[in-house]
Amino acid sequence: MRGAGRAVRARLRDRIAASDPGLLRLTAGLRTVGAIALTLAVLSLLQTDVHLLVAGAMAAMVATFAIREKQLGAQAVTLALGLPVALASVSLGAVLNTRLVVGDAFFVVLIFCAVYGRRFGDRGTALGLIGFQVYFLSLFVGATVGTLPELCGAMTLAFCSSALMRFAVVPATPTGVLLRLRLAFRARLAQLVAAQLELLDAPAAEMDKALEALRDGTARLHETAMMIQGRLEEGTPDESAARLVQRRIADAEIAAERLGLLLLTARTAERADTLTLHLPGAPAPSVAGPEMPDEAGATLRRDLRALHALVLRAGSGDTGTGLAHVRNRLLGYRDEENLPPASAAVQDVFRGIGESARAVLGLRIALDGPQDESDDTPATARSREELDAEDAAIDGGGEEAAQEEQTGLRRPTTRAAVQVAVGSALAIVGGELLSTQRWYWAVLTCWIVFLNTASTGEILVKGYRRLLGTVFGVVAGIVLAGLVGKHTWTAFALVLVLIFAMFYSAPLSYTLMSFFVTAMLGLLYTLLHTYSLDVLVLRIEETALGAACGVVAAALVLPVQTDRRTNELLGTVLERLAEVTEAAVGQLSGGPADELLDKARDLDQSLADLRAATQPLIHPVTPLRTRRNTARYVVALLETCAYHARTLAATAELLPTHPSIAADPRLRGAAGRTVRNIETIAARVADEQAGAQVETGPSIASLLGSDGTPRYGRITDRVLRHLERLDEAVVGLARPLDVPVAAPKG
Question: Where is this region: Disordered (predicted)?
């Protein structure tokens, strides 16, 4: 029974880790709710007025969620600076809220400064957010000069409560966050292997469903890998350790994605295209048969289950003879003589399982350190030697290239500050026409729709989502206010629940977050004895007005059109893709070593930025269906290109240590066409008048020469396949991007 209980707890822990990588959402929710609860507890002991309770709760929330630095020391400095900013802001709000013109003008200036402060990094963003939100708080609770001493005391208490929760009760050190992210990666890797097992057994009628689960698992694994990349420098003791973890995470991700492709190929009538894994809604290839052959299928099921168990136990400190036996068997598939009799496609799957087991072994060593080697087979010992040689070759180095900084109104923070100031001025005028008492809701919405957005389309979609969440939140607020009535502490308890839900759901759905915010505000109005149906309806009107003002300002004042924004990011992705491809091919051709994993990480980040920027183009409310499908197709093709480029980079870094991979000088010339095509497409995206054409011609394999030299004598088949798939995907980008393609030369 005790063992069963441990197994249940382990499964629950893995499920939570996979759904909330690093427990970042859970930590944010608990920390914020804890700070608010502590503030309310102390204020209630002091028997303060309900207005101070509301002010203290809102201040504790702001003081907690505004701080975003990763290092605890930097967080402490920002929190300490935030308190005087908050006290100054609430004081100015109390003095100016009765002076219509001066107060409104100051609010616009404050908004401009708060947004402009983003150019100074996380600290500038946090202090600007605190200044704006606390000024809004002073308007919400009706602060006056007479109540300032009590309000300042509540603010100070709120900041102290936030500090206590952040640094003592719910601490989140960079090392701890990175450790939890590693566990999340392991859990999501196990989920992806489980999805691959389902794909193996899926009947023909359910292949699309199984493929969608495989896509989702692949994307979630990549998301966690990117989160880990962003935390490596702060969460590891030195640069060498960071690079080791980076390498092992990249190996595991590539091996898992490749295994999924090989499985899909084995189940279908033709070789699976990598694009199938990256294009949402793409139909599954036709199934070759109802199921795998009995003997081969049974062996594959057994070994995929074994790989799943191996992944779950990697990094958990679990050791034992059973685990060693499973690991040794799977690693044996890296040797041709150990492959079971089956078709070529099925044998490729067994090879993929062997490579995945090697990646899991490397991940385990990176997380747990050296392992017991007493039960190693020759195949396992050889894998360890390869990993040890790779680890020894990893060193620090490479300085970040200085990025060209834009100046004046071209700087994004300056442009956004001007836009928000204009939009807020419009929201103030329109909001006061709707209500002289609660006009600030329109300003708040205008402010929020500009957060983390960079184009008119993004602002439009965010405004739509906020309005939708607000409408449903008003309905929930009406219901909750009717149920709670005048039960103050019941209302505060529900407020805490809604705040936790708001922070936990924020990264998942902006509409859902807006719903929880509005429902919470309905309860706060009840506590302030200002609740009425008219007030909540007015909230919808002010929200719609604020969103409209934000869109108008974004469209008319220094506008950044969605197409222009996506084209800029698309150009960046293509530049990064060309850099990674050229550097990887250069190293595979015998050139000097380069910081390939860093370049691959930059490619992944630029692709993530592009994916986020295309959301307005692929949103369901977008009326242009053709453009929506084109955007999805282009992003999927780029993800396919990035996968092949990442794999080439990882393979190139194996050159100094892997005995079966050697440099082949012929590769540089053979892959030159691919790099030129990427550069041609990038030039066309930057300038529609560019006249260069994408080249086509013989396959990469045929370009390696026909002089009698063995085609694959000095490079692996895998390298060649990735080069060919990358070349095909790059040529495939030409059509949706309207880049002319030259006819093959006869």
Answer: 368-387
Show Cβ contacts of residue 195 under 8 Å, excluding neighbours closer than 6 positions. Answer: 210, 213, 214, 216, 217, 260
Q: Which amino acid is at 483?
A: L
Contacts of 7 (CB under 8 A, 6+ apart): none
H helix runs in 485-561, sequence order = 488-505, 510-527, 533-556
DSSP 16-72: HHHHSGGGHHHHHHHHHHHHHHHHHHHHHHTT--HHHHHHHHHHHHHHHHS---SSH
- Find the angle CA(226)-CA(230)-CA(232) to the nearest 5 degrees: 110
Cα Rg of the chain (Å, integer):
29
552 contacts: CB under 8 Å, gap ≥ 6: 423, 426
In angstroms, the CA 267 to CA 392 distance is 39
How would DSSP label each residue in 583-599?
HHHHHHTT-----HHHH
pTM of the predicted model as reported, rounded to 2 decimal places? 0.81
Residues 274 and 729: their CA atoms lie apart, in Å, by 9
What is the token pair recorded at 239?
């640069």
pLDDT tens-digit map of 183-241: 888 889 999 999 999 988 888 888 889 999 999 999 899 888 888 877 777 767 667 77
As given in the structure block, the two tokens for residue 14 are: 């893995």
